[in-house]
Structure to design on (286 residues):
């Protein structure tokens, strides 16, 4: 097989590997960011709900 | 527990090794003189991904044993993410292997020992996912998954040794007891890519574990807030 003939196969193989790995990397990074934001929001909500209960207990 | 290496450092290290390995594979290692010719360049990522996918299944195997011993769901989580990434890598191996097969053997697929046993690995670990999806109760799901991961792992050493035990197949055995069967520049490029792919797997396992932990936190917080 000549280099010219092999190039298209090699390019296709590396393009697929790099595309899949890069997409997975960014998808997982985004998933972490979204879930972390959800955790922060839910923790804030939990604190907000506890605060009036705590104030009522103090009275 | 403090982590030894930060997640960004693992990703940067993986990227650096992978780029250097690829550059050396293309510009330092010579074009293969056998019938494979230039298509042999696929090897510098194909083989490390293949071996890393088997490492991921090995991690899942150890995690399965540890789960059955301790009943600690953190081991189940590790096994789950390892198999997810191992399967992703295995699918990449199948795709790039088919491309390489077409280039060097003239066919996309051959029912020879390495390819067939590797395809079986993919099917087994895909079945692991199906199994997990049909069991709702967490501890029972983890137990079934662990037992299945141990059984599925039996095919991994068979795949690894397939080319050595049955050398008449099309797929060559790259590293054998007799040596590497390739030039030192090719082997060095391969090893650098191998280190990079292993670091990438470690970084992705760590990130996926973080995702699973955050998902559990979200579920717990929603439950405590009443829905």
């Amino acid at each position: 097989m000549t280099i010219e003939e092999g190039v298209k196969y090699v390019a296709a193989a590396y393009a697929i590997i790099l595309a899949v790995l890069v997409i997975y990397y960014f998808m997982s990074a985004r998933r972490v960011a979204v879930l972390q934001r959800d955790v922060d929001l839910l923790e804030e909500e939990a604190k907000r709900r506890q605060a009036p209960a705590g104030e009522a207990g103090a009275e | 527990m403090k982590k030894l290496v930060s997640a960004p450092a693992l990703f940067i290290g993986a990227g650096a090794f992978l780029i250097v390995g690829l550059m050396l594979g293309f510009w330092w290692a010579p074009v293969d003189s056998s019938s494979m010719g230039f298509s042999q360049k696929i090897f510098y990522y194909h083989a490390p991904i293949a071996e890393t996918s088997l490492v991921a299944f090995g991690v899942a195997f150890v995690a399965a044993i540890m789960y059955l011993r301790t009943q600690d769901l953190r081991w189940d989580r590790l096994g789950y993410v390892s198999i997810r990434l191992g399967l992703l890598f295995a699918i990449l191996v199948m795709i790039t292997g088919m491309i390489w097969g077409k280039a060097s053997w003239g066919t996309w697929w051959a029912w020879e020992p390495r390819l067939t046993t590797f395809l079986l690995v993919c099917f087994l670990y895909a079945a692991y996912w199906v199994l997990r999806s049909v069991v709702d109760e967490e501890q029972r799901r983890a137990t079934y998954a662990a037992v299945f991961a141990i059984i599925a792992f039996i095919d991994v050493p068979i795949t690894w040794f397939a080319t050595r035990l049955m050398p008449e197949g099309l797929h060559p055995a790259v590293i054998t007891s007799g040596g590497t069967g390739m030039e030192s520049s090719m082997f060095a490029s391969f090893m650098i890519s191998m280190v990079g792919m292993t670091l990438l797997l470690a970084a992705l396992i760590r990130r996926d574990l973080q995702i699973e932990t955050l998902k559990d936190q979200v579920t717990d917080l929603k439950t405590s807030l009443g829905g």
